[in-house]
Amino acid sequence: MKRSLVFAIAWAAVCLPAAFGDEITLRLARTLSEEGDFAGSSVEFRRLALAADAPAARAAFSWSAAFERWRAGDPAFADRLLDKAEDEHALPAWQISVLRGELALARRAHEEAAFHFESASRRAEPDAQSYTARREAAARLRAGDAVGAHAAAERAGPDAEAAVQAYRQGADKSPRLGGWLGIVPGLGYAYAGEYANALRSMILNSLFIWGMVETAERDQWGAFAAISFFELTWFSGSIYGGIDASHRYNRRRLARAEAALMAGYSLQPDYDALPALQLRYRF
Q1: pTM for this one?
Q2: Does residue 212 contact residue 228 with C-beta atoms inside 8 Å?
Q3: What are the residue ranges in the chain where pLDDT is below 70?
C-alpha cells in the first residue's frame, strides 16, 4: 500500500503543473523520510532545491537533502550537499554548523565536530543552545578532552554537567594491562568486567591443559600435538581477548556518558515548515 502511494505521488509530481508538482515532491520527500528511505528522500529534496527560485528555499531544501543523506550513512556526500546550502548565504550560520558537526562525528573527526558544535552553541537561538552544547561535550569526550567537555556541559545545564562529571570520576581500562593479565586465562576479561567470558576462557584453557597432561602421560603424542595446537589458539585468544575487552569497556563507558548527555535530545528538522528551515531539538 505504501509503495503504491509513493508511485502515485511520483507520477503526480511529473504530470501536474509546477506549483502542484513541487508540493507533491515535498510530500514524497517527507513520506520517504518517514518510511526510512533517507537516500530517496534526499534525492527529492535535491529536486526541490534545483527547482526553487528563492535562495532561502534553495538553502533549506539543500540542508534537508544533506540531513537525509547523513541519515542514509553517507556523510561525505552530505557534506557536498551542505556546501550548496551554505553557498546560498540564506541560512543562519549556526544551522549550517550544527549539521557540519554531526557530519564530522560520522567521519570520526571529533575535534572538528567539537569546533562546529561550539560555534553553533555560541550563536544559536536559545532553544538550540543546550542541544549544541551537549553535542560539543559529547564530541570532546570522544576526542579525549574531558576538561573541554566539562566546560561545554556547564553551558548545557546541571544534568549535562553531572553526566560529564560522572565520566571524569571513572577511569578507562588499560588495553596493555588487559593483555598482560590475559596471560593468566580469563584474568584479562575479568579486569574489563566481562566475567562470563573470563569463566569461559578459564574453563576451556583448563580443559585443554588437562588434555595435554593426560595425553602426554599416556604417550599419545598425536593427540597431544592436536590438543596443544588448540590450547595455543585459546591461550593467545585470552591475551588478545583481554586487550579487546578493555577497549570494549572504554567504548561502553563513553557510550553511557554520551547517552546521559543526550537523554531526551535529538535533532530533527520540521519538514512541515518548509521552505522555511526550522529545527527541533527534543524528543
Answers
A1: 0.80
A2: yes
A3: 1-21, 208, 224, 227-228, 230-231, 234-235, 283
